[in-house]
Amino acid sequence: MWECRCDCGSIKNVEGSKLKSGEIVSCGCYGNERRIERATKHNDSRTRLYKSWIGMKQRCYQKKGSDYQNYGGRGITVCDEWKNDFISFKTWAMQNGYSDNLTLDRIDVNGNYCPENCRWITIKEQNRNKTNTVYIEYNGKNYTRCELADMYNLSTGQLSARLNIGWTLERALKTPLYGDR
Length: 181
Known about the structure:
Elements: E1 2-5, E2 11-14, H1 16-21, H2 29-39, H3 48-61, H4 80-83, H5 86-95, E3 103-106, E4 118-121, H6 123-126, E5 135-138, E6 141-144, H7 145-151, H8 156-164, H9 169-174
Antiparallel strand pairs: 1-2, 3-4, 5-6
């Protein structure tokens, strides 16, 4: 047995054969440093982008999560390119308009998280792309209620209320805001 002083300053008794073979090279601190180094691939773990990546994976794979039923429970997955590689996701995000005021959105709400089906959009835009979004045909094009309301300077609630009481779409859109008193 040899009493050895590690580069970090701690003292440890070590078998001579393990010193000679190189099996022991420190008091254990070197191994800890290597484990930390292997586990740390980036310095982004506290960023909003990293939290978006974690959230995406949790929605798809964490069965006890509150959102799982709407994502993983419906078969939504994360592509292999992003699932276990934050750097790949970060690279895509930075090349595709990521900003701290935008949210990750799947273009096809029934599609997977992958570069071809994702984009960065505002919360307002995000709220218009949900599985429960109702589209209304108007002048030959499909619009969400929010889009139609915005086009005619109405709140979505006002437009919905007008339609719910039986107004035609044309009347609901074109009647001035205070014209229904």
